[in-house]
Specification:
The chain contains two helices and six strands. By secondary structure, it is mainly beta. Strands 1, 2, 3, 4, 5 and 6 form a six-stranded antiparallel sheet that branches. The longest helix is centred in the middle third of the chain and has 11 residues. The radius of gyration is 14 Å and the shape is globular.
Length: 135
């Protein structure tokens, strides 16, 4: 059974940094999707705080993970997630239901920002862009 990643920031194919490009190249783009919550501009990267009761959407790309167990571990390292000490991690990896833009839903891995962001950093349209942080 396939596993999926919901990428809303630098792991999206059009935003990926050079050091992560070989990892992201192993994934297959499934399509655009969204999760309810708030996306924050943290400078060179975003942080997402999901909230099923929010009217705001976090827009991103659903990626199918390859059949390679090391990929998820490499993504965890990149995102600052330590499964042995999640309370000390900047992000935590969890399962989320993603609404697909083309219809339907997929269960995806999602990196949730663990700290309390400044509300002034919220990205109103829920779209993070590499070139200026937001659209």
């Amino acid at each position: 059974m396939s596993e999926y990643l919901f990428a809303y920031g630098t792991l999206q194919p059009h935003c990926v940094p050079v050091k992560m490009a070989p990892i992201v190249a192993k994934m297959r783009t499934v399509g655009k999707g969204y999760v309810y919550g708030v996306l924050y501009d943290l400078g060179g990267y975003p942080g997402a705080v999901p909230n099923a009761n929010s009217e705001n959407r976090i827009i991103g790309t659903v990626m199918e993970l390859p059949d390679d167990a090391s990929v998820l571990g490499q993504l965890d390292v990149y995102e600052g997630f330590d499964p042995e000490a999640p309370e000390a991690s900047e992000y935590i990896r969890e399962q989320r239901t993603v609404e697909m833009a083309a219809g339907g839903e997929l269960e995806c891995w999602f990196y949730r920002y663990m700290f309390k962001p400044d509300p002034a950093q919220a990205i109103a349209n829920g779209v993070w862009r590499k070139d200026r942080g937001q659209e």
